[in-house]
Specification:
This protein is mostly helical. It has 10 helices and no strands. Helix 1 runs antiparallel to helix 2 and helix 9 packs across helix 10.
Length: 202
């Protein structure tokens, strides 16, 4: 994981720091690392990720009372962050590049690939990585999020659930569903062996 390069919330234009409600400051201390790592994993740019996360907390500060009144405030806050990341999705090609490079060298994705029964050895690693990256980008929002948080950022189930404002059972279910979609997509392109195993419970 990458260390977020910000400590105090300030607006993206570099003006005076924004004073957040005390409860939002506490929420920020809990979630800022995961928010930054998610944005950085998706966008591949630390400065841009910093601006996205900073803006997310500023936006939350403007409506924090309403967020707290929501039955699931953490889920509402996560939706605000991912909306800002979503509007910058043209930068997601960098996620493709990161996945492709990592698959080619079997770095951070090795446990994930082993769990998928691995991409076949007769396929070029870079080609397989680009295919995996493209398949991940096409996942629906929540499934995309759990794959990025768990297998790019490296969060466990409990930490992923906390970041997304959901429960561990939902994270496990989304992980399984996402794996099934990725497996089907990759197998259709003859990138997976006929059978695979899944270990989504850690």
């Amino acid at each position: 994981m990458s260390e977020p390069p910000f400590a105090d919330t300030a607006d993206t234009a570099g003006t005076a720091p924004v004073e957040l409600p005390i409860t939002l400051q506490a929420f920020q201390r809990i979630h800022a690392d995961a928010y930054f790592d998610y944005a950085y994993a998706c966008l591949g740019d630390a400065d841009l990720a910093q601006k996205i996360v900073t803006q997310a907390f500023i936006d939350l500060g403007d409506c924090w009372d309403r967020v707290l009144a929501h039955p699931q405030p953490a889920r509402t806050a996560w939706a605000a962050l991912r909306h800002l990341v979503e509007v910058t999705r043209e930068h997601l090609d960098r996620l493709d590049e990161r996945i492709a490079f990592s698959v080619a060298l079997r770095l951070e994705w090795e446990p994930f690939l082993d769990d998928l029964d691995a991409i076949t050895t007769n396929i070029d690693g870079l080609e397989a990585g680009m295919a995996l990256g493209g398949a991940i980008k096409e996942l629906p929002a929540a499934k995309f999020d759990v794959i990025v948080l768990r297998f790019v950022v490296g969060l466990k189930v409990a930490a992923t659930a906390q970041a997304m404002g959901t429960d561990e059972g939902t994270v496990k279910s989304l992980t399984t569903q996402a794996r099934n979609k990725l497996e089907a997509r990759l197998r259709s392109r003859r990138l997976l062996r006929p059978s695979s195993t899944k270990k989504d419970q850690e």
